[in-house]
């Protein structure tokens, strides 16, 4: 049995991002940012860079404000904090309407919208299946679960079992053990909230990143667009697939090449298809999504990774989304992108 599990994919992606944004377009001079901040949140790292800081903005106070905001998001949406708003809902046996905050409702509503558009390929209730396959908090067993175990777990999931109501803002679980996990969308929401905080302070040129989800506005200190690198989706070596310039957009990348296990030559990805209960089995290696909000990019990247290149491309074009698909081929890797992606991105030669 061959086993490989590696969570470092986003880390390398971000190293490349910051190597690129830290230099001018000739790569000869390190950019000087007016404000920089790094730390830990949502079980991962975050980084913020601002090219210009208004005179009235105090950097120390901004640092405090960002930390408080990220704590609030965790208190609302973390599944690791027992007293978070989401954990209290998950641990409740109630099948009646439960009041929720505006923030949590907005994320749940967006998740439901994308679940509807993808016909369940994106599903925030998939947690029991992820745990069953060994990619959740439970120890990895390095073996595929039985069909009987999969069918049993699937009885506990299904985004349609979660009802939303606007007046008043509330949600309802159709069965008591429905479990909601926002890990595929909450980081993007957190990125957006930090970005909005910066904008309220008059900061127009910035980069915000949480766990690989990016929101970029304005320009770098040298006046040029932000430049990011998309990693070649190989588990054997780390190389750049594409370098692109971007501004006033959010970006999320998802892939199956850093977190998987193999049993007798069969590879099992950490990405689980909620519609089948099984690990995805197609040739899509990674997908990069652009969107106005990081929350949308975050969720769509996961959804397209489940759908695969063919169905994903069809839906992305229907929704006029800028998306880059990188697929595995016998010769290596092949790129396919939507017209909207080609319009937004300018590849660096």
Automatic annotation (TrEMBL):
GO terms for cellular component: plasma membrane. Its cofactor is Mg(2+); Mn(2+). It is a lipid-anchor. Keywords: Cell inner membrane, Cell membrane, FAD, Flavoprotein, Lipoprotein, Magnesium, Membrane, Metal-binding, Palmitate, Signal, Transferase. Its EC number is 2.7.1.180. It is found in: Cell inner membrane. One of its GO terms (molecular function) is metal ion binding. It catalyses: L-threonyl-[protein] + FAD = FMN-L-threonyl-[protein] + AMP + H(+). SUPFAM superfamilies: ApbE-like. It is an enzyme of class 2 (transferase). Magnesium. Can also use manganese. Mg(2+) binds at residues 184, 298, 302. Belongs to the ApbE family. This is FAD:protein FMN transferase.
């Amino acid at each position: 049995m061959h086993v490989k599990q590696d969570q470092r994919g986003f880390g390398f992606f971000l190293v490349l991002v910051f190597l690129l944004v830290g230099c001018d377009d000739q790569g000869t001079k390190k950019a000087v940012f007016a404000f920089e901040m790094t730390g830990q949140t949502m079980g991962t790292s975050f980084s913020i860079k601002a090219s210009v800081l208004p005179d009235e903005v105090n950097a120390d106070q901004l640092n405090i404000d960002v930390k408080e905001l990220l704590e609030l998001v965790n208190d609302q949406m973390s599944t690791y904090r027992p007293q978070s708003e989401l954990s209290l809902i998950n641990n409740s046996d109630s099948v009646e309407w439960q009041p929720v905050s505006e923030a949590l409702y907005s994320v749940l509503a967006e998740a439901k919208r994308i679940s509807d558009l993808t016909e369940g390929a994106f599903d925030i209730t998939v947690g029991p299946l992820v745990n069953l396959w060994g990619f959740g908090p439970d120890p990895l067993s390095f073996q595929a679960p039985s069909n009987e175990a999969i069918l049993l777990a699937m009885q506990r999931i299904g985004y349609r079992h979660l009802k939303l109501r606007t007046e008043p803002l509330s949600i309802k679980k159709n069965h008591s053990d429905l479990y909601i996990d926002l890990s595929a969308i909450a980081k993007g929401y957190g990125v957006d909230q930090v970005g909005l905080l910066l904008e309220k302070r008059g900061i127009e040129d910035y980069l915000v990143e949480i766990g690989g989800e990016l929101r970029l506005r304005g320009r770098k200190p040298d006046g040029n667009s932000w430049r990011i690198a998309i990693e070649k989706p190989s588990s054997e070596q780390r190389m750049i697939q594409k370098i692109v310039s971007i501004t006033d957009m959010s970006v999320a990348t998802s892939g199956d090449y850093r977190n998987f296990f193999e049993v007798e030559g069969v590879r099992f990805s950490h990405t689980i298809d909620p519609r089948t209960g099984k690990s995805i089995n197609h040739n899509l290696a990674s997908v990069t999504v652009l969107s106005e909000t990081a929350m949308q990019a975050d969720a769509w990247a996961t959804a397209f990774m489940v759908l695969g290149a063919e169905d994903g491309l069809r839906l992305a074009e229907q929704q006029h989304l800028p998306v880059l698909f990188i697929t595995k081929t016998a010769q290596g890797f092949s790129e396919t992108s939507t017209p909207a992606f080609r319009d937004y991105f300018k590849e660096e030669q």
